[in-house]
TrEMBL record:
Membrane topology recorded in Swiss-Prot or TrEMBL: Multi-pass membrane protein
Family, as annotated: Belongs to the dicarboxylate/amino acid:cation symporter (DAACS) (TC 2.A.23) family.
Pfam families: SDF
InterPro entries, per the entry: Na-dicarboxylate_symporter (IPR001991), Na:dicarbo_symporter_sf (IPR036458)
Protein name: L-cystine transporter
Domain of life: Bacteria
Entry-linked SUPFAM superfamilies: Proton glutamate symport protein
An MF annotation (GO) of this entry: symporter activity
Localization, UniProt: Membrane
A GO cellular-component term linked to this record: plasma membrane
Key words, A-Z: Membrane, Transmembrane, Transmembrane helix, Transport
Length: 300
């Protein structure tokens, strides 16, 4: 019990250090990388104490780590929904919404396929396998894997069309995000028609959407502020789960991830050039968003 309390106090002390750094600097990425380092230090130190103590400590740390992941999932779906609806709300008419809808969904699907291909290519070229992760519990059963592999392309396309928006809002399906995008686009088209045919009611809807967007963004900022603490707890769990001889394989996997991410940056840059945009300016403007997406996704 004393050891567990000592590690809880250590986490609180490191959290206070991160808080002080946040107060002196507005850089989220700086705080997150410091949190990763501190989490690694705590995780590695757990290898030198008994397994029972380690298990208890990780259970306490998981309150922060898993709690942070749950909060991310909580705000992700509302953020996607209101962001797309707000963008459509700013359009003057629905003339170009069909093209925009196809562009959004098409780009999403194409980029996912390109990312999957790059991931497979990187793993194949570098000779990666799952030998370093066999001790980690799998979230997928053999039955689920076989069921997914048996899905045909027509069935896959049909599955993208939502049947119950409330089910997709819970993230219950693997394609829930795409389902929400499709529903939001339909809702956006209906919104523009209401604004055109019933201007008074349309203005009320428009004002309500703007208010909800401000509200959701405030919630997102609250969760973003918790990122360093959640990441530190999650990194502690990760580094305590691997034996020292497995870190070489883990570092190889991390290196492969960075290579694949860099290749996706090149893909995005090419698309930006083809669309007549400046890649350097674009990446400079969205860098804070990309940083948060990177650290939060790697945590989840």
């Amino acid at each position: 019990m004393v050891v567990t309390l000592a590690y809880i106090v250590l986490f609180l002390v490191f959290s206070w250090v991160i808080l002080r750094i946040n107060q002196k600097s507005d850089s989220l990425s700086k705080s997150v990388f410091i949190a990763i380092f501190l989490g690694a230090v705590i995780g590695l130190s757990l290898h030198f104490i008994s397994a029972n103590h380690t298990k208890t400590i990780i259970e306490w740390y998981s309150i922060v780590g898993n709690g942070y992941v749950h909060l991310l999932k909580l705000v992700a779906i509302p953020l996607i929904f209101i962001s797309i609806l707000s963008a459509i709300n700013k359009l003057e008419n629905s003339a170009g919404i069909g093209k925009m809808s196809l562009t959004i969904v098409g780009c999403m699907l194409c980029l996912v396929m390109v990312a999957g291909f790059i991931g497979l290519l990187t793993a194949h070229v570098l000779g990666l396998d799952a030998s370093a992760f066999v001790h980690m519990p799998s979230m997928l059963t053999t039955e689920e894997v076989n069921k997914t592999a048996a899905v045909s392309i027509p069935q896959l396309v049909t599955s993208l069309i939502p049947t119950n928006i409330f089910l997709d809002l819970t993230g219950a399906r693997s394609v829930s995000v795409i389902g929400i995008v499709i529903f939001t686009l339909i809702a956006g088209i209906a919104l523009l028609k209401v604004k055109k045919e019933a201007p008074e009611e349309g203005q009320k809807l428009s004002a309500g959407i703007n208010a909800i967007q401000i509200w959701v963004m405030k919630m997102v900022r609250i969760v973003i502020a918790l990122t360093p603490y959640g990441v530190m707890a999650l990194m502690t769990t990760v580094f305590s789960s691997y034996h020292f001889e497995q870190f070489a394989s883990l570092l190889g996997f991390i290196g492969a991830c960075y290579i694949a991410i860099f290749m996706m940056f090149i893909v995005h840059a090419i698309l930006l050039i083809l669309s007549g945009n400046n890649p350097a300016r674009y990446f400079r403007m969205v860098w804070p968003v990309l940083t948060f997406a990177f650290v939060s996704r790697s945590s989840a």
